[in-house]
Amino acid sequence: MNSFVKKTMLVLLGMMFFLFIYVMIDNRNSKGMTLRQKFLKTAYPILMKFGNRNKVIIANLQTDAPVSFYNLKSVLNNGEFFSFEQLKGKKVLIVNTASDCGYTPQYEELQNIYEKHKNILEILAFPSNDYKEQEKGKNEDIASFCKKNYGITFPLMQKTNTKKSENQHPVYQWLTDPAKNGWNEKTPKWNFAKYLVNEKGQLTHYFDPAVSPNDDSFLRAIAQ
User: Fold this and answer.
1) How many other CB atoms are there within 10 angstroms of residue 11's CB atom?
2) Are 95 and 146 in contact (CB under 8 A)?
3) Is residue 1 over pLDDT 70?
4) In this structure, are residues 221 and 196 in contact, taking their beta carbons and an 8 Å threshold?
């Protein structure tokens, strides 16, 4: 091994060491996170800076749903029944989530949005292992992770299937079938795809995962 290769290896090892130290310091208050989760959390700002934010589909705000949104139901992470009937009069944001995804730090952004707008907005998280198996944990593990690291207080559902399949959750069947929601057939592109339903139970927006909850287009939709 020549001296150039040795020097290059030493530089790379040094960079990896300082990156490791930085990640540990950046996540010093994280609880129960794996090393992968810590690296992903630290890398999130870079991901959002260079990610594609252009994929936003907006519906006609007057498109009525052939099947009522309020007929839907789900099961909370703790096993309790959750009827969508109680959501009448509020905007509802539905998000498929995962604990080991590059977009996982959006949990924090969603919680901040929820705290500011919970008088007019409900957020429903649907953990899913559909995309590269980035949510392998059990329901109790998912709840603990969300509470300890992001202080989540909005409803968290049991882990489910969001992709088109015979096991697709009824809520995602509604969100991705024009015969039910009135217009949209777009399925989640990845974890943290966002669907917004207005106060009348009309699906109005789909936001790709790369659209941050802090993005102006997202905030305008919440305020409309």
Assistant:
1) 10
2) no
3) no
4) yes
Catalytic residue among 101, 142, 143, 156: 101
Residue 14 has pLDDT above 60, yes or no: no
pLDDT of residue 39: 63
SS3 state of residue 31: coil
Burial 92-122 (b: 16+ CB within 10 A, else e): bbbbbbbbbbbbbbbbbbbbebbeebeeebb
Is 101 a catalytic site residue?
A: yes
Q: Quick one: tokens of 106?
A: 């959006």
* Confidence check: pLDDT of 102 > 60: yes
What superfamily would CATH give domain 56-223? Glutaredoxin (3.40.30.10)
Domain segments of the chain as ranges = 3-50, 56-223
Query: Cα separation of 14 and 193, whole Å?
Result: 37
- pTM exceeds 0.90, yes or no: no
